[in-house]
Amino acid sequence: MSDERASLTGPDPYAMASGGVASAGVAAGEGHAAPRDYFELLKPRVMSLVIFTALVGLVRAPGDVHPVIAFTALLCIAVGAGASGALNMWWDADIDAVMARTRGRPVPSGRVTGQEALAFGLTLSAFSVVVLGLLVNALSGALLAFTIFFYVVIYTMWLKRSTSQNIVIGGAAGAFPPLVAWAAASGTVSLEPVLLFAIIFFWTPPHFWALALYRADDYARAGVPMLPVTAGPDETRLQILLYTLFLVPLAASPAFLGYAGLAYGAVSVLAGAWMIVLAVRVFRVREGEAAVKAAKGLFGFSIVYLFALFATLLGEAVISGLLR
Amino acid sequence: MSGEKKQKPRPPQEEGVVLTPEQLKRRRARSIAIASVLGFLALLFYVVTIVKLGPNVLHRPL
């Protein structure tokens, strides 16, 4: 595997990122990182989205879960997600070092060594899974363990560097948190959390491919086979449109299946319609600055779209809980 | 013998890695962070034990 990694990225930038930089500059790495560097390893922005979607799963699950247990479950899910991020940064230090968006991360910048990131990630992974399993329930602990395994081993170590479908399958890792939280609250898994999973799963490709469209050079330089690099921007635009056309009715389905209320139905249809408009714009505008603007517009709105869907689900559950 | 001057013992030379003030500051910050996390975990485990077991925490076979 390491040979393959080296061949993808040239003259061993991984070794440099995980050890060489640190040994050259003791002041920065080798056990001298500040706490905020470790915090950065947890990918706090990704973690905040995980906490939010997990909170929705927790609140919408049937049964009354004690607030302290709910807090513990959320904490474990957040720490488990953060641990996955740390392990991802350990493994991907070579890629991160050559991409503009990621070269300032703690490992490639030499503030934290690769070994420190690995130890930190492994410790937090084990701790979050064991604590969730013992203090909340075994099913949620097992699902969290699988989520971490899926993100680190299946996505980061395997798919990311080997197939242009990397983020399609890898997207499952980001889709698991509401399912884990649902299992934590209810001890079971039913169709509704699977729908929440599916919404995030099918949202991930158009979201990331929109980003990859205007970051294709970065991915190509790092040797990551993202769809715009391997199949070209036109095929990526078509795939974005197809996934969006599938995603929008899927995202509206909780309202039609009776899992969500009118407010969710309205938000999912209106915001979904705008997603389709933006995806069509990305599909049609293919040249120059306008094409970049269209891709950035879709990338930005896709975050708003997912947030609006889950915030409405959360709002509906809170209001119906207050009226009960 | 009496003419020999007793030499003052020299202060020991610093050996090994000497941390810079910045590194010492970071080590202190890491220590405080670890202590805070450990304290928080102790409190969390205590509260969860009470929540899960309630008064039964005292009812156990001896």
UniProtKB/TrEMBL annotation, chain A:
Its main location: membrane. Its EC number is 2.5.1.141. InterPro entries: Protohaem_IX_farnesylTrfase (IPR006369), UbiA_prenyltransferase (IPR000537), UbiA_prenylTrfase_CS (IPR030470), UbiA_sf (IPR044878). The chain crosses the membrane at residues 46-63, 69-91, 112-136, 142-159, 166-188, 194-214, 240-257, 263-283, 303-323. GO terms for cellular component: plasma membrane. Pathway: Porphyrin-containing compound metabolism; heme O biosynthesis; heme O from protoheme: step 1/1. One of its GO terms (molecular function) is protoheme IX farnesyltransferase activity. One of its GO terms (biological process) is heme O biosynthetic process. It catalyses: heme b + (2E,6E)-farnesyl diphosphate + H2O = Fe(II)-heme o + diphosphate. Keywords: Cell membrane, Heme biosynthesis, Membrane, Transferase, Transmembrane, Transmembrane helix. Converts heme B (protoheme IX) to heme O by substitution of the vinyl group on carbon 2 of heme B porphyrin ring with a hydroxyethyl farnesyl side group. Carbon 2 of the heme B porphyrin ring is defined according to the Fischer nomenclature. This is Protoheme IX farnesyltransferase. It comes from Xanthobacter flavus. The lineage of its organism: Bacteria, Pseudomonadati, Pseudomonadota, Alphaproteobacteria, Hyphomicrobiales. The gene is ctaB.
Automatic annotation (TrEMBL), chain B:
The lineage of its organism: Bacteria, Pseudomonadati, Pseudomonadota, Alphaproteobacteria, Hyphomicrobiales. The keyword Transmembrane helix applies. This is Cell division septal protein FtsQ. One of its GO terms (biological process) is cell division. It comes from Xanthobacter flavus. Keywords: Cell cycle, Cell division, Membrane, Transmembrane, Transmembrane helix. The chain crosses the membrane at residues 32-53. Residues 1-20 are annotated as: Disordered.
